[in-house]
Amino acid sequence: MTSVESKKRFVGLAVNLGHDQHDGKMSECSSRIPPCLAALEAQTPRLWMKVDSNTYSQTDLTSLVTDVHPSSYLTHLQHLSNQLLSHSWNCGVCTFSNASNLNTCSLCGSAEPKLQYVIPENRTDLYLCANSLQAALGACESSIHLAQAVWNNNNSVSSGFALVRPPGHHATSEHAGSFCLLNNVVVTAQALLNQRDGPKRILILDWDVHHGDGTQNLIENDDSLLSKCMFISIHRYTGIVNGKEQFFWPGTGSIQETFNKHIVNLPLPGIGYRDSDYFHLFETVILPIAHQFAPELIIVSAGFDSAAGDAMGRFEVSPQGFEIMSRLLSSIRPGKVACVLEGGYNLAVLPPCVSATMVGLSKGPCELKEIEILYPEQQSWRERVRNETTEVANLALTWHHRDQNNEIETKSFEE
Fold first, then answer.
1. What proportion of the chain, given as a percentage, has pLDDT over 90?
2. What is the DSSP letter of 246?
């Protein structure tokens, strides 16, 4: 028996049951959660156990969230929701925004149904409902409970997954962006760091296809977080597609975007990156840097729009690829990996990827050298690594290990 063929373990599952209070006719909607739960329920044998995820009082929860997002921002979100809903309504047929005094849609003439959400002016990436803030607070709460159960080993929970929405990795301190209202992973990291006998170092890995610009911004602008957290992001970046330069939202996350060594960006230009490319980044960049940092807890911004079949990302990571990546992370800190759902909008693709990640967490640590033994489908994966991936890895390492005596002010891991 190899070292990785240890007995299966139960992983924690936290679900934000109030997520459907925030629902709009967009790709980020309440329909994302039920098929993921159904896929997990269908697992034989069941690999997970539910974690209590809604036990904070409103006061205590708000206190945890306002360690990252000021109370004025929470008030603004609720006020904006109330204000918009009192002045307009969106047509359920064509989604056109109409003044509240109109009984029929001024664009298509339909009277019903009226959608229970509104889209702020000049925004195509955000909607608000009457209880959007409550849903976002619930997503933070479930994420915190999951991470606490993992850290404290509650009921022998070994790693886990927070199945929550709305997502959070684009939200900054006082700005919502791309479906994200509150930054679930940063709120969770801050709550755990503030916990008595909590972890002293946390690694946040973002494998969503979009750069976690909000997460990076929050960590960079908080010296306490920056000294105790490392943020690594693998994401699609502006690059050449079919001979033309193509911008990819949010357009941030270049290798040299930050001077701090606790921020590592791995921007992949173009489309079509597969399991092998991600394994190469783990082998050459993520695992060596993470082992040096020695995190006591790992939080994953687990977006699955990088999966094969998701038209938004146009990457080709397989469910098995996510399973293996969760096991590679477990090799850094066994039993201490807390995944939090971010993106992933193809409802045929998302559930198997979530399920596979849970399987990987259950199986536990896996070494790179064992991938081809345990997963025959990944035979000769190194031969399939793209040149662009190798170049990104080399550039990222060069930037990370740049001369400490240059004029760039950096922080060491010991700070």
1. 70
2. E
| The residue to which tokens 């590592």 are assigned | 264
Contacts of 67 (CB under 8 A, 6+ apart): 187, 190, 191, 194
- pTM: predicted TM-score of the whole model, two decimal places: 0.90
Cα end-to-end span (Å), the chain: 41
- 67-98 pLDDT, tens digit each: 999 999 999 998 888 876 676 777 778 878 77
Q: How confident is the model at residue 48 (pLDDT cuts 50, 70, 90)?
A: very high
Per DSSP, helices labelled H in 349-400 are: 350-363, 371-374, 387-400
Domains along the sequence of the chain with CATH:
11-77+130-400 (3.40.800.20)
User: Alpha carbon of 72 to those of 62, 65, 121, 174, 337: distances in Å?
Assistant: 12, 12, 21, 8, 32
- In the 8-state DSSP scheme, what is residue 277? H
The Cα 336–Cα 124 span in angstroms is 37
Give the residue numbers marked as catalytic: 170
**Cβ contact 49:169 at 8 Å:** no
Residue written as token pair 């997963």 = 375
